[in-house]
Write a structure and sequence with these properties.
Number of strands: 7
Strand content: 15-25%
CATH class of the largest domain: Alpha Beta
Shape: flat
Number of helices: 7
Mean pLDDT: 78
Strand order of the largest sheet: 2-4-5-7-6
Structural class: alpha+beta
Distance between the termini: 64 Å
Low-confidence stretches: 211-216
Radius of gyration: 24 Å
Number of domains: 2
Largest sheet: 5 strands, mixed
Helix content: 55-70%
């Protein structure tokens, strides 16, 4: 009788623990869903309004020439693409923040990965007249290649958007620093220093230091918050520092 009672109590405790885990998981899922809906509603208001306005213009024949109609259609397409990018980034961010994504560790040449990101960004670099100073030393790392590329691409794109001419030079530099068994990647760009009150805020979702400029250049305000989530999930450090000559380093 005593053994049966003890066994029953243990089973009840075990069931109670499982139930608590299920309730906690459901609570996290509900919170994640509410946050996602809130974020999507917040970020898609502007593109939806633009799409609606230009679509109504096409339906009501506001423009009569082909060139204007083509422009209206291009705005609708461009804003639709932006909406698609925002939703995908938010989904990825939600998964990371709620621990839904597992890492796939492999050995790969991080120098090649960085060079490929830079190569794909050549059009933006040429348009902005930015000089590139790239450490091309061959370095292999063991990490999640997909997330590593996401982190570097967000840093590098951010550096392009905020690069400014200093003493006649507009430049981005990429370098490495070995710290114990880790590799720190540094992305440096010339430009105005970030104010002290904004140094921590830039990692927040949708926060933009210069809203008008970022919107003009297609920023979503999600990139650095995605970097933060990835780095926390992988147990690595991230940050930004102001340097001399009005420059900054993201790492």
């Amino acid at each position: 009788m005593s053994e049966t009672l003890e066994k029953t109590i243990k089973q009840l405790r075990s069931s109670n623990i499982e139930l608590e885990k299920d309730i906690e998981e459901k609570s996290k899922t509900d919170e994640m869903r509410k946050q996602f809906i809130s974020d999507v509603s917040h970020e898609l208001k502007t593109p939806i309004a633009l799409i609606q306005g230009y679509a109504e213009g096409l339906v009501e024949n506001v423009t009569e020439d082909d060139e204007s109609r083509k422009f209206y259609a291009e705005v609708i397409l461009d804003e639709s693409n932006k909406m698609d990018i925002v939703v995908k980034k938010l989904l990825e961010l939600m998964k990371l923040e709620y621990g839904k994504n597992a890492l796939t560790l492999t050995k790969f040449n991080i120098s090649e990965l960085i060079q490929e990101v830079v190569r794909k960004s050549k059009k933006m670099l040429d348009e902005e007249n930015i000089n590139i100073n790239l450490n091309e030393e061959t370095i292999y790392v063991i990490a999640d290649e997909f997330y590593t590329e996401q982190v570097f691409n967000n840093y590098f794109t951010n550096a392009i958007k905020n690069a400014e001419e200093v003493d006649g030079i507009k430049e981005i530099r990429v370098d490495y620093e070995a710290i114990e068994n880790k590799l720190r990647i540094k992305v440096f760009n010339t430009g105005e220093n970030i104010s002290s009150e904004n140094l921590n805020r830039i990692w927040n979702r949708f926060y933009k230091v210069d809203t008008s400029r970022n919107r003009e250049k297609g920023g979503t305000g999600i990139g650095l918050s995605l970097v933060k989530a990835i780095m926390i999930n992988t147990g690595n450090k991230y940050g930004v520092e102001n340097k001399e000559l009005r420059s900054r380093v993201l790492f």
